[in-house]
Amino acid sequence: MKEFDLIGRYFHSGGHQRKDVIVGIGDDCAVTQIPENQQLAVTTDTLIGGVHFLMDAPAKSVAYKAVAVNLSDLAAMGAEPAWISLSLSLPEVESAWLEDFVSGLYELTRFYSVQLIGGDTVRGPLAMTITAQGFIPPGTQLRRDQAKPGDWVYVTGSLGDAGAGLDILKGEIDASGEAREFLIKRHLYPTPRVAAGTSLRRIANACIDVSDGLLADLSHILTTSKCGATIHVDRLPLSRGMKETVTDEQAIAYALSAGDDYELIFTVSEEQKGNLETSLSSTNVKATCIGQLTGNTGQIDLKHNDQRYHLPEQFGFEHQF
To answer: Is 43 annotated as a binding residue?
Structure first.
């Protein structure tokens, strides 16, 4: 199938259509309109088969995850998503695979009122790059470098589920019933915390999403903000599926170091702590306080029932070049 036939058949229509897209798919460039009194947030992520997803993963989940990880980056900045572009590399054209891929792509873009506005298709190893754009009111963006000693550390949702789900699919741990289904779904279909991110804009001092693991991503906040942290591992939010599948120590290890959860880690001052529940009340997202920032730059101390807890050898996922 020729490139433009592929684009016309699978990507030219079917997604959400926004009024702020002047020219969409089908021309040399997309043309969009940025609303008044808004700034543009832009993020790009590449997912490669065999690295970021299993080669036999359902095509629907691959597309869903590719969109979700980019929307999660926007959420971590407090941005409201608007548009995405897609560069897709395919070893060959398989109609059934592409139909499922498009189904996953449009399922998420429709839900968040995001429009696919352009991109590229090439023949090559299975990989996809998405660039996502969204809006933030001036001066309200969430960053990594504004945390302060004394801030409380919170995380949305539950941690470690996606890592456990991946290990189930790889046959490294056993699970059954609802727990197995839940953990695998958390790996294949992550939930970007878009509503929580926009709600935190005037509450949180710093924010980042959990893509590489809690400790690894928290370390980015600590390094750029010149803080340390005390984290209470007995307070980590763990799902019922996780607790039913592995031991307490294994669950803590997943929660600390497994990536792909795409929950938000954020810090809140003592003064704003009381406003947090009200701010998140309309999002249906629970946030759990897991520790507090200190003045020891880059240092993370773990505690379990106020006793010192060992740090894992590896904080999380990191690409090797």
So the answer is: yes
